[in-house]
What we know:
By secondary structure, this protein is of the alpha/beta class. Helix content is 46%, strand content 14%. Helix 3 (42-56) packs antiparallel against helix 4 (61-72) and helix 5 packs across helix 6 (99-110).
Amino acid sequence: MERPTAVVDASVAVKWFLDEPGSLEARALLDGSRSLAVPDLIYAEVGNVLWKHVRRGTLTGEEAQAVLEGLGQAPWSVQSAASLVAAALEIAAQTGCTVYDGLYLALAIGRDGVLVTADRRLYERVETTELARYIEVVTAPLEG
Length: 144
């Protein structure tokens, strides 16, 4: 039986390498129960997140490079953003999300999977549309 597909965005992939709220939940995606997929845009998006950490002083340049190396070993299939951009534009027009976020959703829809994100604003843009079934949010458990 084929494993279900989880498309992960940069907000989740970063949590595999950095300890932040939701990291344990994001890392659970690496258990092999789902096939992972990403658009090739993820490398630039994660690079941008790492750049922000370096600028803030929360990561060194060497640590950021190590994350990029780890990202290159991620167990996912990569799809060209060029093949997804027309669908992403339609999704963005329909939901108000960015075309960048639409790429991840388009991939999830195309693979009959689900986009796993830590981006609550993206989820809120989609939750009242028919696309809601293609997205789930990784959240840290409440303490207490």
